[in-house]
Amino acid sequence: MKLFGREFVEGAFIEKKDGYEILWKVMKIDFGWKIYWKIKGFFSGLEILKINTGTFEIFPFFVLSKDMLIGLLSPSSEKVEIVKENNEISFILRSEDDSNNCLESSLIIINIENKKLLLERYKEWIIKENKIDSVKEIRISAEDYELFLNKDEINTKLENKVIIINDYIEEIEKKSINKLKERKNKIFAKTKNYLESLEVLDGYIIEGTIEENYIFHNLKYLLLLNYEDTFEYYWKHLFKNVVFENDLNFVERIINVNAFEKFWKFEYINNSKERILLEISWNEKQIKMEKIPFINIEKNSVLKDDGRIFNFYGGETK
Amino acid sequence: MMELRYNPLTDEWVIVSAATQKRPVQPAKTQCPICPGGIEFPDTTYDLVAFENRFPSLMKNPPKIEGKNNRIFRKRESFGVCEVVVYTSQHDSSFPQMPLKQIEKLVDMWVDRTYELSKYDFVKNVFIFENRGKEVGASLPHPHGQIYAFPFIPKRIEAKINSMEKWYAENGKCVVCDVIENETKERIVRETDYFIAFVPFYARFPFEVHVYPKRHLSTMLEFSYEERKDFAKILKIITMKYDKLFDQEFPYMMMFFQAPFNTKNYSEIFHFHVEFNPPKRDKDKIKWMASVETGTWAFINPVIPEEAARMLREVEVEI
What we know:
Chain A is mostly beta strands. Chain A has two domains: 2-130, Beta-galactosidase, Chain A, domain 5 (Distorted Sandwich), CATH 2.70.98; 142-291, no CATH class. Chain A has helices at residues 115-130, 174-182, 210-216, 232-238, and strands spanning 2-3, 6-7, 11-17, 20-29, 32-41, 45-52, 57-58, 62-64, 68-72, 80-85, 88-94, 101-111, 145-148, 162-168, 186-190, 203-205, 221-223, 251-259, 263-270, 275-281, 286-291, 298-303, 309-314. Chain B is an alpha+beta fold. Chain B has a single domain (2-314), classed as 2-Layer Sandwich (HIT family, subunit A), CATH 3.30.428.10. Helix content of chain B is 25%, strand content 22%. Chain B has a nine-stranded antiparallel beta sheet with strand order 3-5-7-6-11-12-10-9-8. In chain B, strands 2-1-4 form a three-stranded antiparallel beta sheet, with no helix packed on it. In chain B, strand 1 (2-7) and strand 2 form a beta hairpin. Chain A binds chain B through residues 114-117, 232-233, 236-237, 252-256, 269, 273, 275, 294-297, 299, 306-318, and chain B through 40, 46-52, 54, 61, 101, 104-105, 108-109, 111-113, 115-116, 118-119, 172-173, 177, 215-216, 218-219, 221-222, 224-225, 229, 265, 267-268. Strand 23 (309-314) of chain A pairs antiparallel with strand 3 (48-52) of chain B, so a sheet runs across the interface.
């Protein structure tokens, strides 16, 4: 492992290069290391960290093996790219303009032989580093809700709405997003980089990998548009913070999910203990929500003179 | 007198209910209170029915508690619901003898009762069970079970929740999902599309069988329609195997364990499951819940679980 081209060792270092200066600190933490850096001056591309590929999988803002996670800690890390070349993975810092930069950021190295714990520990560090409060309930009513199919349909004059954009936030003009935020709208959209969009989005349309979603569940609302059977177990765990308009109630328990590219439906129990069938057609811009019965057989409840209730059931099951 | 009393030695609530003393015990068939024409249904018949027990331990509108509460001797009103669940109007039938279609309807009824009872804010746990046979205290031979909608989480369920939480924290997955993934053929009694039944590695009773849904579900409310039908099927298979094991009406306690309601959400860690606790250790021998088991919760199982599983597996039944 190399850090700024040198051997990885604990401590604080300063190095002056042609046109820029790097300060970095390597600090021991529980189960790993935290690395902080600050760079002043002009540079085009700078290698922060280099590791052997090993069994690492690469994600937009972190790499993960069965016993190690190396991840960026804040949205300002947007200028860092993770690049795989030959048998090595590098974290490269890119500079976007020619001005005199002063960039500071951090990454973390965690070493635990449990993938879930690695992700959880990483999440804890993201929360700490970005001072994130736990997700607060957003109550959405029908009139507050705006559903767009794509970025071209965004109306920046909207105020106090919940705007669900079925497109990548990175592909929408920053000016439009800023206007919407200024007008106190809440924005849900897809993103190519969850960490990068941390400050912009109120909720993510689930798009990334299970690992990314796992880290971000409970940090932001997650809205499910695409669904893969194999991930069912994990998706259900991500649903905690999902909200749906025109039902003022919150999803309490998911019962079943069926989702296709442009159409998805699922059954859930809301916090008023109603069983709801929700169908969304993205082609027709329609959301259909209906209460459905819990059972297939007939039921008749009778109140007896002594105050007891008798519930008679029968008929044929479907 | 009906109230909940707190035991500070064990941190648990005890239900005191004088009314339950009046429950009929093994009346003659002609005196069966839950047959059509009996005291509960004097002028009606039915297919299946769930009704509030005439002699309840818990009530939606319990009497006010008598006397004063104090720091040591704490008591609470007995909020809750106790329902009798009658499976069929056929007095001489039994769970394993009932047509599969009838058990499917029963499963639907259990789901609906869980749903309805969980709507009461005071209900923290919906416990569905059947005591079959005199050996486990069944007072009526007519096929029926009961539901207790508790205003607290009973001690053993609390112990399960604590263990499940601990396992989840240490292993990152639900303990039952983990057990299912690692269960070996030697303990499996029967497997269907959506459920698995086996004598657990940790069986406390000689012919104890657990039924687990293969999918992670925390309560019956999450059963799909297909799972409900499959659940009916596996319960019928297990109870039929029991009856055929020693060619007798095999007594058992059948208990459903669901995640709590109206409290912290335990759906991630809690996996719905059924426990059959039969008291027999042989054709004519009983495994009693005696001092050690009752007093300490430590069980001595005289039948090796793998052997019990083999015996049950080899009993062939057709449904």
